[in-house]
Amino acid sequence: MKPLTRTFTPDNHKGGKENMEFIIAYTTEQVREGHMTGPYSRERVQDILGSHFRSSPLAVVEKNSHEPGKLRLIQNCSYEDEFRTSVNSMIMAEDFPTRWGTAAEVAEIIASAPPGTQMATLNVDAAFRRIPIHPAHKPYLVIQQRPGEFFIDHVCPFGVRSGPGLQGAPMDAVVDLLDTRGWGPNKKWVDDLTNFRVPTSALEDGTGWRYDHLIEDIFALGERIGLPWHKTKWRDHDPKGEYLGFAWDIPRKEVSLPERKRLKYLARVDNVLATADGGAKRVPFGMAQKLSGTLSHCTFIYPRGRTYLTGLYTFLASYVNEHALRYPPKSVISDLGWWRSILSLPSEHRVLEKRGEVRNLDLWVDASTDWGIGIVIGQSWDAWRWAMERELWNKMGRDIGWAEMIAIELLLRRLVEEGLENAAVLVRSDNKGVIKAFRRGCSRNWQVNLSIRRTELLCMEKNLDLQPVYVNTKENRADPVSRGIPDARLCRFKSKFDLPEEVAPFLTHA
């Protein structure tokens, strides 16, 4: 963390100011539980911590669609000062690795599940608020309630970039413990666990199945290892369940949006359409970005929706900064009309199909800032050169990480062009940051996020699972290709697909 040379205490967000009673009740409870101390004056906090400190604006949001009306306090640790520095900008999420149980992995489990398979869901109680803060980091996570009224936090807040990894690491161990016992398979997303169980045999009268574990066994294991499962946020084993915001039907091998989610997302589309007023009014970047994330999530259920997101992605890429407003083109308004129509249908679902074992097709990708992007498939290669000088493309989030993600995206487009579908494949890259961002499904760089979303959408449409793995640059067969000096022993192929509109101005086929 960067040393603090001054104290920075911005005002809370509007939602925080409007819900001050909730914030006061929350801090009172946290002080009672020993998670916070205070309230203190600014001078007293500096005296206790022995240094300058900074607070992040508080926001109050609804918890989730399971608990309408229930609120959650969030510290906006991504809030930047005038020097464009935030608490989260000082933290590298890559330093806090964890595994992510994706929807694609759950889909594969269900698509391959034998009759009688069931799923249960559990949640760790107050997961983040059980992780202690290192004393040296407490000056970065002070809470400002009312102006001049501060609390020192002693446990991890909701909103800090390292939080998912800090909580995810012990949950990874829990998954390993369950899998080792044969109580699985298991998938988790931070503090949410989905436990599957497969029948060991059928009952003699044919009315049901025998299993080797119950949800009570998982609760008992939690007691033994000190893992506090939430007492009410759990669902017993059943042929149907929810995970990652999707409703899964194991016997029918289908997935859909829960009804409350469908209505929530429909309202979000309606809100943007009303704001845009047919394209006559400007839309804030944050609103457009939030909608793109929502609809990208929905494409897991509606794969054909990918076609109706390309325009929105291009529109997002046209914003000059994250505080700008822009008029959406008529094509985006039309695409959102399609989304409104499909989200108005309550019975839409997606049938799950097996991808099979992970295949090694000898796939390699790389990018260089000076020359371009290269991909290698077996004994053949393809490449794209930068269409302009580095200082012209390397801005507005388009950096080497973005280029490395574009390399993965272009490889996928080539594989789809060759007819690949219903498969899981290894991809080798020498960029650890991009590999981890792709596995998580998000990056702090919004341009990288757009490429991840385009890639995920195409994967969903073709039921593909790309599994990037790290290789050293010296071993990366695509490295010389990305520098314009391909191995003479390789054959050249030339892909015929069109580059995405957001990428096309910056690359030309070599």
TrEMBL record:
<protein>
    <submittedName>
        <fullName>Uncharacterized protein</fullName>
    </submittedName>
</protein>
<dbReference type="InterPro" id="IPR043502">
    <property type="entry name" value="DNA/RNA_pol_sf"/>
</dbReference>
<dbReference type="InterPro" id="IPR052055">
    <property type="entry name" value="Hepadnavirus_pol/RT"/>
</dbReference>
